[in-house]
Amino acid sequence: MRPSDVAKLGAIVLDEVEKAIVGKRPVLERVMLAILCDGHVLIEDYPGLAKTLLAKSFAAALGLEFRPPSRRHHGDVCVRSQSQRVRPPPRSRVH
Fold first, then answer.
1. Which pLDDT belongs to residue 78?
2. For the chain: N or C, fewer Cβ within 10 A?
3. Is the dihedral of CA 62, 13, 34, 46 positive or negative?
4. Domain assignment present for 37
């Protein structure tokens, strides 16, 4: 598949998703880029701002199944990510 073909298909998917998620084209483009690169996306926003709808819309537009993570799994991920934070070295005291 040529890059121009990928661009056309990507635009079609984005236009379809944008029917449900209005006004967030830059975010949708980043998600599409991650999908094309076989990457992962962490969608963070305030409650009620269509994060789940975004994922469901991409799944529907791409003919995929949407399976939300379980709450327990999500909590485990948060705990792991917090425990792996890099902390700055302690300050030296000058006497």
1. 46
2. C
3. negative
4. yes
